[in-house]
Design brief:
The structure holds two protein chains of two kinds. By secondary structure, chain A is an alpha/beta fold. Chain A is about 50% helix and about 15% strand. Chain B has a four-stranded antiparallel sheet, covered by helices on one side. The N and C termini of chain B lie far apart (about 35 Å). The chains are: A alpha/beta, B alpha+beta.
Amino acid sequence: MTDHKVIENTRLQGIAVSPGIIIGKARLVDRTKQKIIYQYLVDEDQIKQEKERFKEALDITKEQIVTLKNRMSDQIREHSFILDAHLMIVDDSMVSDATINIILEEKINAEWALKKSVQKIRQLFEEIDYEYIRDRINDVENVAERILRNLVGKEQDNLSEINERVIIVAHDLSPADTSELNTAMVMGFIADVGGLTSHTAIMAQALKIPAVVGLESVSNQVEDGTLLIVDGYNGEIIIGPDDDTIIAYEEKQVQHERYKSSILRLSHLSSETVDGHRIAITANIEFLEEVIAAKDHGAEGIGLYRTEYLYLRSKGIPEEEELFEDYRQVVENISPSSVTIRTLDLGGDKFLSDSELIGEINPALGLRAIRFCLKEPEIFKSQLRAILRASAYGRIRLMFPMISGLQELLDTKKILNEVMNDLEKENVEYDHDIKIGIMIEVPSAVTMADILAKHVDFFSIGTNDLIQYTLAIDRVNEHVAYMYEPYHPAVIRMITQVVKAARDAGIEVSLCGEMASDPFCTALLLGIGINEFSMNAGGIPLIKKIIRSISREEAVNDLKDILQFETVREVRKFIEKKMETLMPELKDKDFYMKLSLNNS
Amino acid sequence: MDQIKRLEILNDLGLHGRAAARIVELTGQYKSKLYFIKDGHREVDGSSILSILTLACPKGTEIQARAVGEDAEELLDNLSKLFKRKFGERK
């Protein structure tokens, strides 16, 4: 580090990638280049030794990566793929064999030889036309640096030993760096490089701490202990702020916190429209542990319990007993409110090991959800038994995903009846009046909703898949994702049709897709007649606040206008204008979406 | 023992890091050696993730896979399936 002085109050503009404001001390993650000695080897013995020393360094490197991988918290485990790739790079012939050959042929030390083989790989990569492949050279450099450090024997910059709350400052953070971090001690991230999809951004979002990247040379401008302000809303950072600036930002921090908590405070009030209609707000959860957060955010029950986790977590199919324990705890924790348990919504290929490679070209239209369950009745029955047994401990509603027509529903109910009969024969207790419902997420189910309604107790509209199937848009495909559009008149008509069918048959209807937590859809859905919204816990406070400030009668009247519109644009314009008068502070949609994100 | 198969890259991202890793994983399960040849280029080692990446294959590229060894046919069959299912890429 040079002996430059930190200039007071330097402002730098970067890219905001995770919201929030923090004031704290810097901790540099310094990947200073090693001092490397270059030397020739004199005799065969030395050459042999050098080869062994290199192999040892490779082994140590692999051990370190495996340890990192095992230490990854669940929050970031999905990124462990990168460490797998790093392991492959250590073993790659272009790294290991090539370096050993250079040691043997050129009679030079391992550090030098490794530098040479990496240089060769770099040249090959530089010729690649495609940036996303060319950029993988960063992984090679990262791995090579680790091997070098192990060769030179210098201590690794030990990030796991950070024991005070700090803001991490880096040129760029690698997954290996972040997996070493004691995340409880990290208040925020700032980095020289990166964008919205960079690893640093993804990590910060997962940890719900502010981050600003793309600051160019910030890692050269601060030292350990420098005071920093990070504004993850505007993408600004301030190095060495003076007192006035600190006070100004503390105020800004308080304002944001106050707004968040003002919504949070209201979340325990009932969600009733100004004209006195009660709307149920429930939570979507994936794990037992989320029940507490759901209640804290004001959920009046669990509207969607996704049950895939236990099937994906361990290898193979979980035992009925394990499922039962999990479901029983959820229902007991949420009692006296109810939990809607959705049966397995997975594709068949998830259960087969990768080497069998039974792939599908189009998994969204393939063997998944209820189709898979009907094909594998033993797996299905074991889950149904677990759910029914748990229903003796509180209020469970049972829901089947992806029903596309009546026959499928009847086949499913037949299996359910068999399981119920079995339990009765075994004298096992369960709730004989358990409510049975289906997800409405396939267009054919919308068209047949009046028929299906005669055979179930409730509908839950899954808008994510329904929009995808209706508009033939794969929302994960960047080329068409922009066409994924909840305001599409076809989508609005479909939801309206389902609600009407449910109402005519006298059954309940809720909505559990992302539309439920979109503040710009609340009035629309209310007008259509949805009276239960189920969403991620973080979205609940804001939606409750909106419901408490609108009139259902007005929403119903507005719907008449909206149904006349022929294009997305007309619908959007109408709704945005309404929102502007209803909740002016929500005008900046992106900002408030971020707020609710950070809340969850 | 020496078998050759033409393969087309169907996934949107081409032979990127994750796809290359899948190939190396698969190759590791067989005794046979695997090589890739892209038109006009040198042959590369199919068990080396970096070699596969340097082939620089975007979507639509055709490459030849050559396997040598007792289980070459099985390796190529499963390799071909891996390519067809777009390396399990969830779009």
